[in-house]
Structure formats: C-alpha cells, structure tokens
Amino acid sequence: MIVVSGGAESEQVNLPLWSPCVVMLRSPRGRSVGDGVCKRRPIVSFGRSLAGQRRLLGLVLAVAVMECSSSGMVAAADGRHPVAQARQTRTEISARHSEDDPTALDMKILAPVLDPVHGLKTPGVREEEREAYYYVLQRTREIDYELQKAAARRYQTRRRAVYPDKRVRSDPKEPFPIFVDLYRNADRPEVYFGKLVTLSGHVRLLREIPAGQNPYGIQTLYEAWLYTPDSQSNPACIVCTEVPAGMLKAFRQSRSHLLDGVTVTGYFFKMMVYRAQDAPRFAPLILARRLEWHPPAPRKQRAFAISSWLVLAVVVVVGGLIVAGLVISDRRHRRRRTWPAEVEELWLGDEGTDTLETDGTSGPNEVSSQDGQSK
Fold first, then answer.
1. C-alpha span between 42 and 27 (Å, rounded)
2. Is 215 exposed, middle or buried (0-12, 13-18, 19+ CB in 10 A)?
3. Using CB atoms within 10 A as the burial measure, which of 91, 229, 248, 297 is most buried?
4. Residue 148 DSSP label
C-alpha cells in the first residue's frame, strides 16, 4: 500500500508488488499542504514496516529490469539477446554514416533490412524492406555517378589496409578480392551495409523486370547476375535502373549468353538467399544506377587471327603432303629403271659371257671353277 498525499486529504493506493511504473507526486511548489512549513519531501510514502520496505525493493528492481531491457543489456541464456544486438548494430551504423558524405544513406530508412535473427541473410526483397529498397535505388539516380565511384575506391583502399592477406595489403597492384571480402563480412553489417562497392566481371543473366509500385516513379529495372574473377561460381545479383544501349540486345543474341567486360558501382544492400541446384546460397545484392559495359577487343580481329593461323597450318600440311608424294613417286620411278639391269646381271652374267653348261651334278663350287676357266 502506498499513501499519496495531494493536499489536505490523503488517499491510499494499492499497487502490485512488481509494478513497472512509479509516480512520485509533490505538493505545489514543493510545500506540504496544511502544516505551514516548507519541506521538500516526496509525497509517496512506503511506510517503515517490513512490508513497505519489500514493496520499495520490488519497485526498484522492476524499474531496473525495465531500464536494462530498453537499453539492450539483457542477456539471454545462449548469449546476447538478438534484438539488443540488432539495436546496437543499427546505432553503430547510424553513427558511422553520420559524417558529412554526399553519398551517405539514411540508415534509419535501411534499418528494417537488418533482421534481428538472420542479420542481412534473408531471401528476396521482403515487404518490410521495400521502402529501403526503392529509397536506395532513387539515391543512386540522384547522386552523381562519378562521386559514387570515387567513394567506392576510397572505401576499397580502407578495406585493403586491413585485409588478412599480406600480399594484398602491401601491393596496390594486386587485385583486391572484393567479393571474398563481402562474404567474409556477411555477418558483420557494420563493414559493408549501405556502402558503395565496385565489381567487375562477366554477366551470365541479364533481363528487364517491372519495378512495381514505388513513390519515385521508377518504371523499369534491370537484373544482372555478375561473376567476378574471385567469386568462382558464385554470382552477385545486380539491380539497376539503366543499362548501356544495345547491351540487352547483345546479350539476347549471344549464343553463349555471356557478356564480358561488365563493371558496376552500387550500394551493398544485403546477402540475398537464393536456391541453387545443390543447396541454398547467398549472393550479394547490389543496388546501382547503371551497368558499365566495355567489351574486350573486337571478336572479328581475334577470329581473323585464328583463321589466319588455321589457313597457314592447312597450307603447311598440304604442302608437306605434296612434297612427300613427289619424293615417293620419284623413288618408285628410279626403281623401275634399275630393276631390269640388276636382273640381267644376276641371271645373264656380264656382257659377252656364254651361257653356263653343267652336267646336272655340279654344285656351287663347280660352277665357280668353270666360270674362272672361261674367264
């Protein structure tokens, strides 16, 4: 029981032992009414009994628990409370983006993207993050594209300085594995969430999709799946509002459905969950203004070079076959001219020699002696 004095009369108010709210009332101007003495004292009295002290202790503990819960300091049995952790992460991100940066985003709008349980690893674009989704796309159209690329280069330099691989840290010419760094920090939203990044590689999927209802008048979006040199078989999903003229047509006409020399600079939105052939995987979702397409050396020149080497090889092979055929033909012709003379020497003997006469019983020695006598 709490005694509340509000003037000449007093009223008894019964409050629960673990009441979450305590109201301290004072008389006007801090004076006690009726006693004529100016005293600053609380008008809420708990009494001096043991029960009153217990109620006071209970109220104090209740207020302490509420304060701890609201500040995110309540600990769960398996670690930090996920809601408290998400709240603290959002606070850190907001502080990080509070600098005077023309490319910075309003992280209060992006707050729903960070799920209390799964962080940035969520499928598709959820209903609660649609506002942030279109907000980022609109920001990419408002901010100068060159400023975006410059900000991405500056942040990549900062990331290079703390990269685990010493070779990447020490050699500026070493390509920075931005895709690998995104994956390594997928569970640390404060590293890349809402930051500008630049990716380069080849595109294996490019299509035009409707933008859906949004307050910015965006009608059409383009979805591209980009593979970087360090991503191996893992793509990044790019959603942008512009593509170069002829790029979509070139992709549709490509037999391999592959376009090389593609670069994009955009904001890292989240790790989007998608279902691959073997298991669910994560793809960085990048929201950008446009795709940059710089095709390699014209394929006609390379095709001409390949065909020139092929023609040269065919000429060499055919010429070798012709030469070999002539050599073989010449050898056969020579054999035909010398064969009768050899036969004549073997069977007819030298020129002017009479035919050998034998009695039918002479062997090889007798033939040789007769040949010597005739000579």
1. 9
2. exposed
3. 248
4. H
List CB contacts of 144: < 8 A, sequence separation 6 or more: none
Alpha helices per DSSP H over the chain:
50-70, 82-96, 107-110, 130-142, 145-161, 166-170, 178-184, 189-192, 247-253, 299-348, 364-374
Cα–Cα distance measured from residue 178 to residue 354, given in angstroms and rounded to the nearest whole number: 101
pTM over 0.70: no
Tokens representing 185 are 């920090």
Q: What are phi and psi of 358, to 5 degrees?
A: -130, 160
Correct CATH for 102-299 of 2.40.50.140, 1.10.1760.20, 3.20.20.70, 2.60.120.260: 2.40.50.140
DSSP character at residue 354: P
**What tokens appear for 271 in the block?**
């790790």
Tally the residues of the chain: 375
Would you say the C-alpha torsion 115, 120, 122, 127 has a positive or negative sign?
A: positive
Q: Residue 19, by phi and psi: left (phi above 0), alpha (psi -120 to 50) or beta?
A: beta
Domain edges within the chain: 2-70, 102-299
Element (H, E) at 289: strand 280-293
Tokens for 11?
């009223």
95 φ/ψ angles, rounded to the nearest 5 degrees: -65, -35
Token pair, residue 203, equals 């595109």
